[in-house]
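Progress note, project year one: complex with manganese (II) ion.
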Amino acid sequence: MAEAGLAAAIDRVGNVYGRTPGNRRTVLIGSHTDSVPNGGWLDGALGVMYGLEIARAMIEAGHAGGVDVISFQDEEGTFLPCLGSKSYCGVLSNDDLARAAGPDERRLSDVLAAAGFSAEASRFEPDRQVAYLEAHIEQGPKLEAAGARIGIVTGIVGIRRFRVRASGQADHAGTTPMRLRKDAGAALIRLAARILESMPAMSAGETVWNIGAMEFKPGAANVVPAEASFILEIRDLDEKVLDRLQTRVEAMVAEAAAGAPVAVAHESIGRIEAVAMDRALADIVRKVAARHVGEPMIMPSGAGHDAMVVARTMPSAMLFIPSIGGRSHNIVEDTREDDIVLGCRVLADAVNEVLSRAGSTDRPGR
Ligand code: GLV
Ligand code: MN
Ligand code: MN
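Model obtained:
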């Protein structure tokens, strides 16, 4: 970022934030550069690199307007979903920070302290930034199937994550009679199966769910599990559907706890509400895209993005480019090079359009 001519800094949660020098109207362009385990090269980084490239080109051309670029920390939620964008938008509470823990139960606060980032929190600048634009790969099959090269996002699903835990007793798995065991693993597997079997009837047409992590402790073939946990995630565009599902899942956890010789409990470990993108801004991006490739596809996002946090703070819009085979959250994730280039051109033109509407001249005094 510094090489591109941006004034760049890493803030207290690890956001990398680069501002075009001077007092001017800017568009904030960003996404994230963290990844999921064994994730691909574009999920997140694409949107940051677009911002960096557009900023570099504008500064080089001496453009009067400008862009600010941000790489948000931990969008994927290794510790806390959308940590960086929440911090940037001022909606991260000290409680959230204190409670967040990641793999191996490492505490986010300890990890941040060990990383030694600055004490400063970067914050959005409402007098300066007129809009947030995030470009991302689609991460699904719809664009490719329709032969569309650009997608314009209408809204982003709400996401709820729960950790469900069972606590029993470690015992010798060869000598302890079955009826005497307090097997946390068996109780949790039964509960997980019941939830997965009930979901299709409980959910709406577009709801998706996932049990993507499960852990047993101490985790050995010859020890009855003393502790077991899984993480359940549910997504839908409709918060009412999510409310209903949450209530039912909570009832199933309570039922499992009532009948079992082990304790079963759940906690919410992540909640981001469904959000609509700014219609006027999305329409600007749509029109610009149409000049390049004809009408883009108008679509919701089933993946979470930093835009779902930022959209509550400033006008936000997203554009998608296709994912080959719809694959993502996998190392095979990829996008055709001409699509990658096209997406950057569309985003750059959209930035110019937004800045020219906002009046992009340098202003004195700040
Ligand atoms: C981010 O990739 C998410 O949708 O969880
Ligand atoms: Mn992702
Ligand atoms: Mn992403």
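Residues 91 and 138 are 27 Å apart (CA to CA).
The longest helix spans residues 337-358.
No further modelling is planned for this target in the current period.
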